[in-house]
Design a protein that fits this description.
Blueprint: E1 3-7, H1 12-25, E2 31-38, H2 45-67, E3 71-77, H3 80-90, E4 95-100, H4 106-121, E5 126-130, E6 140-144, H5 152-165, E7 168-176, H6 182-202, E8 208-215, H7 218-228, E9 233-238, H8 243-248, H9 252-259, E10 264-268
Parallel strand pairs: 1-2, 1-4, 2-3, 4-5, 6-7, 6-9, 7-8, 9-10
Antiparallel strand pairs: 5-10
Length: 274
């Protein structure tokens, strides 16, 4: 992990995401690019641009003085989701770090929809930090999977990040108590056990443990598991779906983004942009 992009609107939610990036940069070398996106009319932009750049300069100075971390800042006009992705690619960052409000009122739903769109369209991993999350160094990361991914770029990113934090990796496959019969449970158990063995061979220095998470509802069961096992970060792969698939099989990553109590790392399974 060498470089991250952190969008900010100067809210407490965005500040929490920025703090996660800053605290991480104190653990291992990492460049932080902070951007503020200006969506108002052309008439207001010249007047507000200088003010916003001044705010960003003050933010940069406060981080340098309080944390000893140097950051790069930029104010840009455009549509939030478009600019986030275009700047991430232009800056050649490894990951985008954003704050998320979780379920709530109008503002929460608005920002939640923006984070969901970023997850859907980003060719880069997106790390979502809950608005009420208090920084702690990740010690345990949970990779929730049903596809048992083998793509080196995806796995190298996950295990590379875990290595940076010196974190343990827990593998989990979900068992639906209402729909999975005994044969399905047996197959999932076999798959996750073999997956654990393959990953231990591929990443011999990593601490890996596999298990099943059971329940009647994936988000609720996973959230309970995160609490019970003191998981510090949830990792999920995202897949592109057509219109019909989105209706009958809505994104579990998106659902988790609204309720997660720990940072959620969403990695596009179509591959990581380089």
């Amino acid at each position: 992990m060498k470089k991250v992009l952190v969008p900010t609107d100067f809210s407490s939610c965005a500040s929490n995401a920025l703090n996660f990036a800053v605290q991480s940069a104190k653990l291992f070398p990492m460049e932080i690019c902070i951007i503020h996106i200006f969506e108002e009319s052309d008439d207001l932009y010249p007047l507000r641009k200088a003010e916003l750049e001044h705010q960003l300069d003050l933010l940069k100075l406060s981080i340098s003085e309080a944390e000893g971390v140097t950051v790069k800042t930029k104010a840009i006009r455009g549509l939030v989701n478009d600019v986030i992705i275009s700047e991430a690619l232009a800056e050649k960052v490894d990951m985008i770090i954003m704050g998320t409000f979780g379920a709530g009122g109008v503002m929460e739903k608005l920002w939640g929809s923006r984070t969901a769109i970023t997850i859907k369209h980003s060719p880069l991993p997106v790390l979502l930090i809950p608005y009420d999350y208090e920084w702690t160094k990740p010690e345990k990361m949970l990779l929730a999977t049903s596809n048992f991914e083998e793509e080196p770029a995806l796995l190298d990113f996950v295990f590379g990040l875990a290595g940076s934090y010196k974190a343990k990796i827990e593998l989990a496959v979900f068992t639906d108590e209402d729909f999975d019969d005994n044969i399905t449970v047996f197959v999932k158990t076999t798959h996750i056990t073999h997956y654990e063995q393959r990953l231990k061979e591929r990443y011999p220095d990593a601490v890996i443990e596999a298990m099943q998470v059971s329940g009647k509802d994936f988000p609720e069961a996973m959230q309970q598991h995160l609490r019970d096992k003191n998981i510090d970060m949830l990792v999920m792969m995202t897949y592109q779906k057509n219109f019909v698939e989105r209706i009958f099989h809505p994104s579990m990553t998106r659902k988790m983004s609204y309720i997660t109590s720990v940072p959620l790392l969403a990695i596009p399974a179509r591959g990581i942009a380089v």
